[in-house]
Amino acid sequence: MRCGAHLLVMSLTLGASTGFASPADAQQRSSAPARSDGSTANDHVRRARRARDAGKWTEARDAYKAALEALEQSPSAQLDTAEIAGELGVCELALYDYRDAAEHLTRSLERRELLPLEVQRRFKVAQLKAAFYVVTLLLSVDPPDAEVFIDDQRMGRIVGTYKVFLEPGRHAVRARAPGRAEAIHVFNGERGAKQEISMQLPHAAASSAREAPTATPKPVSASPAARAQAPGPSASWPGTLRIGGIALTTATAATGAVLLLRAHVIHTNLREGAVVRRQQGWTSHTCREASAPAACTDIHRQVDQRNLLATLGKVSLATSAVFGVATAASFLTEVAFFGAAPKAAGVRIAPVITSEQAGVLLEGAW
């Protein structure tokens, strides 16, 4: 009996200790994945920084991407995704993956208040550079809960306004919603351009009413009197030439202004990048050395592109001035030789001469 009592006491003691230990072990096992995810993200970040400092951009990009995915799966980890997303965008920019770089850098700068001021400036310079090579699409959709597809790829989140970065070229945007007619917008985006699209999905009943066939108007033939009064080709060619001259003047002036604006943007990016590089220890002779960093090649390419755009812009403005002078001279020549205004309908030319300048006042349409 005494032996049996001892065995009974030992069994109860063992069961109690097991019962008390099991919840603690379960709690420890439940908290282990969170710590594991945080430590895994830290390991990825450390590996990414070592690769970045060594100039191994591909390895650094993969490590930052793995850290970002680990943090998205473990929101409780004590790491900031804003800086990791920005560093990932810098690595993608170095690898000429401009679309993903612009997306990650923009995502990082949306939480710029969490970043140091120097890091903000570095990410902003990189974001402007990446956006120069892609198309920035600002898309608003009504109703806001409509499904949006860009190039047959569904957008991951449903919002009223989208900011998307796309490769230059032709793209198709499609939106649909229950009870609404589908809307499609096709556009051709150029590099560095910002495309703003507003899509409003009409109700299905309204769209079907608009699709009803309409009567085709019959062409109205001109009367013999009107045909007799129509001027011949020889009477309209001076006005046609003047219209062409005005169009060429406007087009070349606009082209020159756009080219000079692009050159100014590149010059601003280079100047801001130079400030960041000087803070990193670069000197004016860094890119002239035999062991120059790989980024020097891209810097030289941007300088050449800026100079080319500036030259083309100045040539376009000079050409616009030539066309403008020639067009104005055609009016002055006709007035000087014939002593009357041109025969174009609805046009009145009045010479204006003052003590300081001389010119021509044009009124009407030609």
Structure explained in plain terms:
The chain is an alpha+beta fold and 366 residues long. The protein folds into three domains: 32-132, Tetratricopeptide repeat domain (Serine Threonine Protein Phosphatase 5, Tetratricopeptide repeat); 134-205, Immunoglobulin-like; 237-281 and 295-338. It has helices spanning 2-53, 57-73, 81-94, 98-109, 117-132, 204-210, 224-229, 233-279, 295-338, and strands spanning 135-142, 147-150, 153-154, 161-166, 169-176, 183-189, 194-200, 347-353, 358-364. The strands form three sheets. Strands 3-2-5-6 form a four-stranded antiparallel sheet, with no helix packed on it. Strands 4-1-7 form a three-stranded mixed sheet. Helix 1 packs across helix 2, helix 2 (57-73) packs antiparallel against helix 3 and helix 3 (81-94) crosses helix 5 (117-132). The chain is flat, with a radius of gyration of 35 Å. Residues 1-5, 12-35, 220-235 and 340-345 have low confidence and may be disordered.
Strand content: 15-25%
Radius of gyration: 35 Å
Helices, by number, come to 9
Which class of secondary structure composition applies to the elements? alpha+beta
Number of spatially distinct domains = 3
Query: Biggest sheet: strands side by side, in what order?
Result: 3-2-5-6
Termini gap: 125 Å
Q: Stretches where pLDDT falls below 50 for ≥5 residues?
A: 1-5, 12-35, 220-235, 340-345
Oligomer: single chain
Q: What is the helix fraction of residues, given as a range?
A: 55-70%
Task: Tell me the series of helices and strands, N- to C-terminal.
Answer: HHHHHEEEEEEEHHHHEE
Identify the CATH class of the largest domain: Mainly Alpha
Averaged pLDDT: 75
